[in-house]
Amino acid sequence: MEFFLVGGAVRDELLGLPVHERDWVVVGATPEAMVKLGYRPVGRDFPVFIKPASGEEYALARTERKTAPGHQGFSFHAAADVSLEEDLARRDLTINAMARAADGRLIDPYGGRADLQARILRHVSSAFVEDPLRVLRVARFAARFHGLGFEIAPETRELMAELVASGELAALTPERVWKELERSLTGPTPAVFFDVLRDVGALALLLPPLADLPADHPAYRSLSFDDGPAGQAEAGSASERTSVVPWMALVAAAVRDQRRLPEMLDMHDHEAAGRLAAGLSESLRTPREHRDGALALARLLTPLTAPAGLDADTLLRTAELADAARRPERLERLAAATSRLLRALNADPARLGRSRQMLVALPDAMQVDAAELTRAGLTGAAMGAAVRERRLRQVAAVLDSLAAGGGRDV
């Protein structure tokens, strides 16, 4: 029985990047032998085990055979006679098909180290076309390693286009597509992910509304953290480093341009705006917070970029939509997404700064002393009206304060 560190941990170590996850392949073992050693079985389709002391995954070496369409249409053979090289052969890219032995030796049967040095994303074998998820995975790696100069090998790009043309992407579940998209959105250059999907024809199948937008549309510029030298992404706040923020900015920008009817984003036509903003999120069954955040930002777009700016009622309605009184962190994310989008729209830096200050200040403006109103004898609808009236005054005070500090154009 031999244990080998495999995949991303080996790749990232060779790139000098932090290793956050370690996966292992076990050669020459049986499920019974793993259980006797104290490993806990968790795999359903093939034997995977968790080492209790570390929580890391250990999978028995295995081969696979295509049996049905889609990402899960495979049968697996895991046995003590499956070699490490056979296990690595089933992986997507050469840079992910390396292993590290217990004595430190690098096992690299498919040229992964050379491709790392050449900054090439290359498929391991022609079996690449059997798994449609690999189109998304390669696009994600292209985005993740864009700052390091990685490019997709032309022959691999051709296989990706072949996979798209085969119709196999239709077998991917919305949840699985979203998982790859979400992981891409937290990187420094998620726009590259969409560029690759567009280039191989996958974007039109997975997210048709986005495929209609030109590659230089502000929706895609709003995705990038890269405001400095090539490969040097800005750190971003903690709230910006979630998938929620770039998705909100992307969907909101796409909504605004999709039918070229910005008046549909007016607060008085919220149902039409909601259908547009929700459509992209619901097609992937994204979490409700992503959908609601995108809708809130879509509603802010027109007044944020209009000369007259925002009024207190529009701002309060947006805060109410975000449930800001109970969930103030949502406004922090809305502020981050607004900043992204205004940067992409080449907004005046002063307006950008005031917009962020305005949204960050809103949670305090939403606080009302309900006990005081109760003591005044208010209940029911009268109480609700009084709470909203006080909030409106407090939101107006936020706008007035910002106006006094540099012009009311937020």
Topology:
Layout: E1 2-6, H1 8-15, E2 23-27, H2 31-36, E3 40-41, E4 48-50, E5 57-60, E6 62-66, E7 74-78, H3 84-89, E8 99-100, E9 106-107, H4 112-118, E10 120-121, H5 133-144, E11 151-152, H6 154-165, H7 174-185, H8 191-199, H9 203-206, H10 208-211, H11 218-221, H12 244-258, H13 270-283, H14 288-305, H15 312-321, H16 328-344, H17 349-365, H18 370-375, H19 380-404
Parallel strand pairs: 2-5, 10-11
Antiparallel strand pairs: 1-2, 1-8, 3-4, 4-5, 6-7, 8-9
Helix pairs in contact: 5-7, 5-8, 12-13, 12-14, 12-16, 13-14, 14-15, 14-16, 15-19, 16-17, 17-19
What can you tell me about this protein's structure?
The chain is of the alpha+beta class and 410 residues long. Among the domains are: 1-111, Beta Polymerase, domain 2 (2-Layer Sandwich); 244-404, no CATH class. It has helices spanning 8-15, 31-36, 84-89, 112-118, 133-144, 154-165, 174-185, 191-199, 203-206, 208-211, 218-221, 244-258, 270-283, 288-305, 312-321, 328-344, 349-365, 370-375, 380-404, and strands at residues 2-6, 23-27, 40-41, 48-50, 57-60, 62-66, 74-78, 99-100, 106-107, 120-121, 151-152. Strands 3-4-5-2-1-8-9 form a seven-stranded mixed β-sheet. It has a two-stranded antiparallel sheet with strand order 6-7. A two-stranded parallel sheet has the order 10-11. Strand 6 (62-66) and strand 7 (74-78) form a beta hairpin. Helix 12 packs across helix 14. The radius of gyration is 25 Å and the shape is elongated. The termini are far apart.
